Structure to design on (145 residues):
């Protein structure tokens, strides 16, 4: 089975793909994504169970996109989800979902993993950008508790 970090990165990749397609196209995109997931070094295709976890998590995040985007827009200055790059927005959506709706994932882990993914797939400043926004989101969520 894939490690959590690997699953999270694949979820990000599917969310990123979703940002280019309409919701009507997503079932087809999920099927194509499952075919495109890279085989591990052994050449073995990733288990069906991992694909199921990735696509289900992506669907749960997409169900909350409007709420997640509202939270992101409330916690940015001079930026909104319409202006953000698709890499950064996809990473932020995944991390905000984990911070607010996944009690199994510590906030610090969600933020650190998001920053790592942003650095890997985004621009030079993406990690700092993601870190700053998620810090505000986590602080705002903490103050509600």
């Amino acid at each position: 089975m894939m490690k959590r970090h690997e699953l999270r990165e694949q979820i990000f990749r599917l969310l990123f793909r979703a940002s280019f397609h309409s919701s009507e196209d997503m079932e087809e995109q999920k099927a194509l994504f499952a075919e495109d997931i890279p085989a591990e070094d052994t050449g073995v295709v990733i288990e069906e169970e991992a694909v199921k976890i990735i696509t289900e998590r992506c669907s749960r995040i997409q169900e909350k996109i409007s709420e997640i985007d509202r939270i992101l827009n409330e916690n940015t200055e001079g930026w909104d989800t319409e202006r953000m790059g698709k890499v950064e927005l996809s990473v932020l959506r995944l991390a905000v979902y984990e911070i607010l709706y996944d009690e199994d994932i510590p906030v610090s882990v969600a933020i650190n993993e998001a920053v790592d993914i942003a650095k890997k797939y985004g621009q030079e400043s993406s990690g700092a950008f993601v870190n700053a926004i998620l810090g505000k989101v986590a602080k705002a969520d903490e103050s509600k508790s």
In short: Residues 4-144 form a domain with the N-utilizing Substance Protein B Homolog; Chain A fold (CATH 1.10.940.10). The chain has one domain: 4-144.
